[in-house]
Specification:
The chain has about 260 residues and is mostly helical. The longest helix has about 45 residues.
């Protein structure tokens, strides 16, 4: 399944890159002149790969959800009461991760915008390098570049911190749940034989759930980049140059009035 998903990922990268390049030189002059070089470069060299990774992570998430359903079905067969407590654990973990969804999307969007701005500034630096060097205005210009570099690194760190914290929290919460089930099984009316088999099932279920949560967070993180790529492709399609291919056919005579 992973190999099949990777094949789809590579196909999407090729498809998006080819479509972006082919459509770029079919657009009208007005849109092309207003389009910044950094946005085109960012879309081709940086945005398309993580945008297609959103598809790959979505396929991984679906695969993990199927595995979780199989493990949960096995857990229900072994112990109904123990499975009910596991559902409570999943609800708590999912709600906590969903609470950070908007934060992840916001930081990811800021990161993408900062990367595009940084590429725009770098392109301007390359195109105007002689002017900046001769006019001695490089220090003023470089301050804007340093600001965008700072924004990129800060948002990268925030995304890594949120993702790492949520993955660690989900995994530790799963371990705490397993310990709780093992210690409290006499009070939960779960026999010792059932608890041993349940722990074996949960030892596979909880890591799979943790991986699925991580895949979900990666999809949310890459969603603003995917939307940026899709918006650009839609703009390229909507601003395509229109050429006439048919001859005008006049059905009526042309009448000139007040011609001297």
């Amino acid at each position: 399944i992973e190999l099949f998903s990777k094949k789809i990922h590579i196909y999407l990268i090729k498809s998006y890159m080819t479509e972006s390049v082919n459509r770029y030189y079919k657009i009208n002059w007005t849109w092309m002149l207003n389009d910044k070089a950094g946005k085109f470069q960012s879309a081709i060299s940086r945005e398309i790969i993580p945008a297609t990774e959103a598809h790959l992570d979505s396929l991984r998430l679906i695969t993990n959800i199927i595995q979780i359903c199989v493990y949960m079905y096995a857990a229900f067969i072994i112990s109904f009461s123990g499975s009910l407590y596991s559902i409570l654990f999943f609800i708590i973990a999912v709600l906590i991760n969903l609470a950070f969804t908007s934060k992840i999307k916001l930081v990811s969007k800021k990161n993408n915008v900062s990367n595009i701005n940084l590429l725009n500034l770098i392109n301007s630096l390359i195109l105007n390098k002689k002017f900046l060097k001769s006019s001695k205005n490089f220090d003023s210009f470089s301050s804007h570049i340093k600001k965008e570099i700072y924004n990129v690194t800060q948002t990268d760190w925030k995304l890594a911190l949120i993702d790492g914290s949520l993955r660690t929290f989900t995994y530790l919460l799963g371990l705490a749940f397993m310990i709780f089930i093992f210690i409290m099984h006499p009070f939960l009316k779960i026999t010792f034989n059932e608890i041993i088999i349940l722990l074996l099932v949960f030892s596979r279920l909880i890591p799979t759930f943790s991986i699925s949560v991580s895949s979900f967070n990666r999809v949310i993180e890459k969603l603003p980049i995917y939307n940026s790529v899709k918006l650009r492709l839609d703009e390229l399609k909507n601003n395509e140059e229109i050429f006439g291919v048919s001859k005008p056919n006049f059905n009526k005579d042309i009448i000139f009035k007040d011609v001297f």
